[in-house]
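Open question from group meeting: does this chain pack into something compact, or does most of it stay loose? Before anyone orders reagents, we agreed to write out a predicted structure and look at it together. Recording both the input and the output here so the notebook holds the full record.
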Amino acid sequence: MRKIVTKSESDKKKNFNKFLVGGILIAVMLFSTLGYAFQGGDEEESDKINYNGFDFVNSNGLWYTEKGNYQFVFQHSPEEVEKIGSEVNFLDKYSNQPVYVSSKNDLVTLEIFRNLNQIAQRIQMACLDEKNCEGDAPVKNCSDLFIVVEENSIPEIKQEENCVFIKGPEENLSKIADEFLFKTIGIEQ
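Structure tokens returned:
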């Protein structure tokens, strides 16, 4: 037989159970939040570097940094790229100017577009000579701000007048393009 329980005893038992379940839920949420905070903090530290005074943060496989009011995004960190001795125009040279690009490498083209597009007046695909010009791209020369990306066995970044030639093996072109951007932005000397 069941014990007869008064309404007040039944209410006390229900309230105790509510507080017990509520307390357990609060403890679980608190410990999971603390666990996430400690775990997230360790990951964040390993995906963050400081290079020549610039803070780089890796998020979703891309490296982000800021200079002034601009945010730059790279495939590679400055520590991952090959250091190529060269002198190139600095970022202010591209400010509010049309910039032309000749490249058959989509990854490098994207890298240049996403970083210089916020600085330049516009970025447009172009050709350096009429012979190899495909489509309706305009033909430009080195009197214009022109970035030419070519495959070559030897990595090289070379400035001639307003033309920048980024050359290297196909598998390294994105690293060489990042090195060019690091130099242009002033991250590399």
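Observations to bring back to the group:
The first helix runs from residue 7 to 46.
The chain has two domains: 1-46, 49-185.
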